[in-house]
Here is the input.
Amino acid sequence: MTHPVPPAPPFGAPLPLTPAPAVLDFLALRRSASAMKLAEPGPNAAELETLLRLAARVPDHGKLSPWRFVILEGEGKAQLAGRLEALARSRGDQVATAKLGKLKIPPVGVAVISSPKEASIPEWEQLLSAGAVCTNLLNAALAMGYGANWITDWYAYDAEAMQILGLSGRERVAGFVFMGTSSEAPLERERPNVAALTSRWEG
Here is the structure.
């Protein structure tokens, strides 16, 4: 697939704010695809490079880039799944073993790692920025025509699993974003009642 996007603008270039109706249409209908329904082809190397560039265009107080990416594909992803499966089996945890299907089946995944920096910016804001990266990556993959799903699951929180993935210090998995070609159109799910969740500050 070819999905040309504008090149990264040079630092300091003016970026006029203009209406983008197509973006509104996309957001009105966006729907994650089941990770278990994602097959080849997934994003190729050039597309993945573009997706990561778009993912990084998020609010980032202090310009800290408090996150990083770990690409999961091919033999590397298979080895990671194998080590996590061995970990789960060593504990006799069949449920954890079964949940690895969401990692094994999709052809491409990206682990977005929250990597807070020592700075005056509160760590909470840095964590939120990592979540925004996950959202951007998910939506960019969907907009590119691929199925995509943002998951966490046990191996995002387990200390030994995080060590296998190569996390250190205060790093945490903000999310695994899996991508591929969806074998079926996802169905609309129940959405929240926004009015019931909204109030207006009146003093």
The beta strands are 38-39, 67-73, 108-114, 147-151, 172-182. The chain has one domain: 34-183.
